[in-house]
Design a protein that fits this description.
Radius of gyration: 21 Å
Number of helices: 11
Number of strands: 0
Helix content: over 70%
Largest sheet: none
Number of domains: 1
Strand content: under 5%
Length: 237
């Protein structure tokens, strides 16, 4: 019974995310729909500036906390409606708050469940705790790892809360800045060409800088392993 109680917050978030996804709520945030309604939405933002910004933060927080697939569409919407700088700030704030909710729920779900942890799991945790900063930043910077899945994994790996928040703000912020800029660019492309696909996320100009930063995050791990493998000095007679 206690185990079920510890799982309830995480299960509730997952269920809410599945429900939102199946409801088709994200369809309203398709960049083509946002661009078509940009004048109306812009007028509403001008009439209710604080509410509009709180809505962007709240929707982003909900998408991240529930692990909702396609949360990048919320970031794109922020870039289109608020511009690159303000859109990045609002989406970063919502992402950090949502990630914190999911992280705490996941940490509660995993608490007390280590009575019979497999040896492989213990080795994974040991490897992580040898280089927690590098591994955490790497996981946050690599765009192929889903944000929600990484959040749950970091909770399972027992990432310290301060490090989790640092990586979510710094590493997650880098990705959101790229995605917000893409969203602002998508609006111009849709107006000019009439259509665009999200395959732009796989463009080398987007992926290569992120992968380069992820590689830098792994550099201390590689250097440490090479240092451990280096043979010591020969024994003296």
């Amino acid at each position: 019974m206690n185990r079920l109680k510890s799982l309830l917050p995480l299960l509730a978030l997952i269920a809410l995310g599945v429900g939102l996804f199946l409801s088709g709520a994200l369809d309203q945030l398709d960049p083509h729909n946002i661009v078509q309604d940009e004048r109306v939405l812009g007028a509403q933002i001008a009439a209710h500036p604080l509410l509009a910004r709180l809505t962007q933060v709240g929707v982003m927080m909900l998408a991240i906390a529930t692990g909702l697939p396609g949360a990048v569409l919320v970031v794109f919407a922020g870039g289109i409606l608020f511009g690159v700088v303000e859109g990045t700030v609002l989406s970063c704030l919502g992402t950090t708050l949502g990630a914190l909710v999911l992280f705490l729920a996941s940490r509660r779900a995993f608490a007390g469940g280590d009575a019979h942890v497999p040896a492989l799991a213990e080795r994974l945790r040991a490897g992580y705790h040898a280089y927690p900063l590098s591994y955490t930043m790497f996981l946050r910077l690599v765009p192929v790892f889903p944000f929600g899945a990484v959040t749950v994994a970091l909770a399972w790996l027992r990432c310290p809360l301060w490090l989790f928040l640092l990586a979510s703000v710094a590493g997650g912020g880098v990705m959101i800045a790229f995605e917000t800029a893409l969203g602002a660019g998508l609006a111009e492309t849709i107006v000019r060409d009439g259509h665009v696909t999200l395959n732009i996320l796989a463009h080398p100009q987007v992926l290569l800088p992120l992968l380069g930063m992820a590689t830098l995050a792994l550099a201390p791990i590689v250097a440490g392993r090479l240092r451990h493998r280096r043979p010591g000095p020969p024994p003296t007679m």
